[in-house]
Design a protein that fits this description.
By secondary structure, the chain is α/β, with parallel strands linked by helices. Helices cover about 30% and strands about 15% of the residues. It has a single domain, classed as Rossmann fold, CATH 3.40.50. Bound molecules: 2-phosphoglycolic acid (PGA).
């Protein structure tokens, strides 16, 4: 795990965007793993700037998102599908046909989960994945538990996640209770991972991820076993390491 501590979120966004830009330049048809939440927004802004300068070309890139709420339509303003178009995909020259966000569509969601992992494998696997981390140490919507879930699956959101995400909804009652998420195994198959954490509220989770035991009660701790993880922290998120 390489750990970099920066002054602020904007500088982290630029640094992380450069890693993604370098991947797109090296491999124009690369497979990129994207995330939602507040944390990656400065990186998405920096990627849009690089695109506007003509430095990167997304036309052949393929993308897979980590997760999506269950039970809300893709057009809902809080759907992660819409988030990605609002914040990145509509602002760069990505081919919408190359964009994948998990979404349970059939009567049997388990089939949709298996199909999502199969589609990632068929694309050759994820070359570079961006991650945030939850206050409870979750990555994607893999919540603390007794095992590290392998593949994409349907998950019940924890109280901590509902509490953290209620800021995007009119009230906590409106936060969906379930989501579809890539599993820990799906994420660990990415060839390279960049994780960003900013703010004092993430310091405990960051410390458990870096210094704690590898334990499914802190899902991000599994990243200690990944051979190519770069962690970007601001000083607040790095306060306890
Ligand atoms: P945040 O969420 O970026 O909105 O803090 C991160 C996460 O829950 O993984």
């Amino acid at each position: 795990m390489k750990i970099h501590v920066y002054e602020d979120a904007a500088k982290i966004g630029k640094a992380a965007a450069l890693i993604f830009a370098a991947k797109i330049i090296e491999k124009p048809d690369c497979v990129l793993g994207f995330a939602t939440g507040s944390t990656p927004l400065p990186m998405y802004e920096a990627l849009v700037e690089l695109r506007n300068l003509g430095l990167i070309n997304f036309s052949l890139a393929r993308t897979f998102n980590l997760d999506e709420y269950a039970g809300i339509d893709r057009s809902h303003e809080q759907s992660y599908y819409r988030f990605m178009f609002d914040n990145l995909f509509s602002k760069v020259n990505i081919n919408p046909e190359n964009v994948m966000v998990p979404y349970p569509v059939s009567a049997n969601p388990d089939d949709d989960c298996k199909a999502y992992d199969a589609t990632i494998d068929a694309a050759g696997g994820i070359d570079l994945q961006i991650l945030g981390i939850g206050h409870n140490g979750h990555i994607a919507f893999n919540e603390p538990g007794y095992v590290f879930p392998a593949g994409t699956h349907i998950v019940d959101l924890s109280d901590s996640t509902i509490e953290a995400n209620k800021r995007f909804f009119a009230s906590a009652d409106e936060v969906p209770r379930q989501a579809i998420t890539m599993g820990i195994g799906s994420i660990m198959k990415a060839r390279e991972i960049v994780l960003i954490a900013t703010g004092r509220g993430k310091a405990e989770a960051v410390s458990a991820m870096i210094n704690g035991e590898i334990d499914p009660m802190c899902p991000a701790s599994i990243l200690q076993l990944h051979p190519a993880v770069t962690v970007f922290l601001d000083k607040e998120a790095a306060a306890l390491i």
